[in-house]
């Protein structure tokens, strides 16, 4: 009997399990199929966890738009949206108006925030290919390489248009311009977590309009994001998924009936006809730089160039448990506005890594667990710090923001008024985990959307090669318009499964 084609999928995240699910359910047992996963769990950057009996997400959190989202479709099909057994990170507190507080304890009212939030929204809408406004088109005309420069030019144009604004009163030493700039920076910081670009000056301007969102609400999954992963894996026979099998080297283009040899960290290997590589862009970047590299022979330069050019940043989530002697409703959802890092007016005890974090919100209405998102250098620093250091810094920051307005530079001893304290933390560590080396991809200045298409090209490129489709690539960083998301990873898994199904004349959908 002829041997079955053997397909090995590297990585049991969304892309890998989607590909495995599709190949298994569409091929009528045509293939010998394995999913080899370097970690001890499935899900990859989807990882539902628990913190003080609340269900929280360490990685993927939102279904970004429900209309047309395959993730939403699965969540609905398996009844995972509502979550019944325990409270979860549904973020319904976000529906209430957050308090926006500027350093020094100055609560900002709508008339202060609204013009800047509208400006920021208009600028981002324009960059994303939506509606234009006068500031956008003016700042566009100035020519832009990055989202960072586009946004800052937009702010300058806005200021030029309102030069005769009256002076600001009632906000201590904040001038109008400083405060507006700091509010603008708060929105920029949120954008850093959306995109994972640590610095918006490294986020490509042109590519932003290629990114696609699904219409409709953005929601979280009551039973946890991992329920989607468990569903995808549930159809596979027991021995298909192998955990704790970290791949050290992929030898390809060998003169053998199975041309790919996959070496594991423990010295064992498996031969395959096809391998679908779904590891993160961070792991690929390290894999082409390290010696010995992940691929032997090394990947062709058109591939390594795209891998090097594309951006891949770090975003981390920090969950904090409020001390029991504070009622959760006493601590509102916060938007935090800080002085620039070079300002004399800074509170000396608020560390640099807190100053680019925009929000602190309860994970649901009146929850005792609060959440902040960190990006870039700050996210990496968070991974390094001890729980005690984090608790101390966040406590100081929040207590200072919520105390009576004050002009003097504060130290520990003169934080007047509201004392809040946290007792425990849970944080993600995507940057330092060798199986991820970051959080998600973005189009860096110097790269472009076409680099995602290059990422997705299978090897060898010679279509008449007697062993075609040896290495296929899936994963969020191979999808040109839905990169950085779970549904992008899902689509990429379907794409590569279909490539193989079509190759073997099974009908892919
Ligand atoms: C903090 C955070 C928040 C996010 N929020 C959202 C969100 O709200 N909505 C959204 O849509 N997306 C979000 N994302 C992005 C989303 O999680 C990812 O785009 C998606 O899960 C990526 O899936 P993937 O299969 O491409 O990669 P991965 O999930 O990274 O899967 C790759 C797998 O390969 C394994 N692996 C790596 N190296 C090896 C090796 N050498 N050998 C064997 N196995 C290996 C890894 O362990 C991993 O399991 C978020 C991500 C993070 C980190």
From TrEMBL:
* MF terms in GO: polyamine oxidase activity
Keyword annotations: Cytoplasm, FAD, Flavoprotein, Oxidoreductase
Q: What is its main location?
A: cytoplasm
> Cellular location of this protein?
Cytoplasm
Question: Which superkingdom?
Answer: Eukaryota
Which Pfam families would you find in this protein's record?
Amino_oxidase (PF01593)
Where does it sit, as one GO cellular component term? cytoplasm
Report the family membership.
Belongs to the flavin monoamine oxidase family.
**PANTHER family (alphabetical):** FLAVIN MONOAMINE OXIDASE (PTHR10742), PEROXISOMAL N(1)-ACETYL-SPERMINE_SPERMIDINE OXIDASE (PTHR10742:SF405)
Q: What is this protein called?
A: Amine oxidase domain-containing protein
Organism equals Gossypium raimondii
């Amino acid at each position: 009997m002829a041997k079955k084609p053997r397909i090995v999928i590297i990585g049991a995240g969304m892309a890998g399990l989607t590909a495995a699910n599709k190949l298994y359910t569409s091929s009528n047992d045509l293939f010998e199929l394995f999913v080899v996963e370097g970690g001890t769990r499935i899900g990859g950057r989807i990882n539902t966890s628990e913190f003080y009996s609340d269900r929280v997400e360490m990685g993927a959190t939102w279904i970004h738009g429900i209309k047309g989202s395959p993730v939403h479709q699965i969540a609905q099909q398996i009844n995972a949206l509502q979550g019944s057994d325990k409270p979860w990170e549904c973020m319904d507190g976000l529906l209430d108006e957050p308090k926006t507080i500027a350093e020094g304890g100055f609560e900002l009212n709508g008339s202060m925030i609204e013009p800047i939030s509208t400006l920021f929204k208009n600028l981002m809408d324009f960059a994303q290919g939506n509606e234009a406004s006068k500031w956008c088109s003016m700042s566009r005309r100035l020519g832009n390489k990055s989202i960072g420069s586009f946004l800052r030019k937009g702010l300058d144009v806005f200021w030029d248009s309102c030069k005769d604004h009256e002076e600001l009163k009632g906000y201590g030493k904040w001038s109008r311009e400083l405060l507006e700039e700091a509010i603008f920076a708060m929105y920029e910081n949120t954008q850093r977590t959306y995109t994972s670009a640590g610095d918006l000056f490294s986020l490509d301007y042109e590519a932003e309009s290629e990114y696609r969102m699904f219409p409709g609400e953005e929601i979280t999954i009551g039973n946890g994001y991992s329920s989607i992963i468990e569903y995808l894996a549930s159809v596979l026979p027991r021995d298909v998924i192998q955990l704790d099998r970290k791949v050290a080297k992929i030898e390809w283009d060998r003169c053998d009936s199975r041309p790919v040899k996959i070496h594991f960290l423990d010295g064992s290997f498996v031969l395959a006809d096809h391998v679908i590589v779904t590891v993160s862009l961070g792991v690929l970047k390290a894999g082409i730089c390290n010696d010995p590299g992940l691929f032997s022979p090394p990947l062709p330069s058109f591939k390594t160039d795209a891998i090097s050019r594309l951006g891949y940043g770090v975003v981390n989530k920090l969950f904090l448990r409020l001390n029991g002697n504070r009622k959760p409703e006493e601590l509102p959802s916060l938007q935090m506005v800080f002085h620039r890092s070079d300002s004399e007016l800074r509170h000396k005890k608020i560390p640099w890594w807190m100053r680019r974090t925009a929000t602190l919100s309860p994970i649901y209405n009146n929850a005792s667990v609060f959440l902040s998102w960190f990006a870039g250098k700050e996210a990496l620093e968070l991974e390094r710090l001890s729980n005690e250091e984090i608790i101390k810094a966040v406590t100081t920051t929040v207590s200072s923001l919520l105390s009576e307005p004050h002009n003097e530079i504060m130290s520990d001893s003169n934080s007047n008024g509201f004392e809040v304290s946290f007792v425990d933390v849970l944080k993600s560590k995507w940057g330092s985990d060798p199986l991820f080396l970051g959080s998600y991809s973005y189009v860096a200045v110097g790269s472009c959307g076409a680099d995602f298409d290059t990422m997705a090209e299978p090897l060898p490129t010679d279509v008449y090669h007697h062993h075609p489709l040896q290495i296929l690539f899936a994963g969020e960083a191979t999808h040109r318009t839905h990169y950085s998301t779970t549904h992008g990873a899902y689509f990429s898994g379907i794409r590569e499964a279909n490539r193989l199904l079509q190759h073997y004349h099974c009908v892919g959908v």
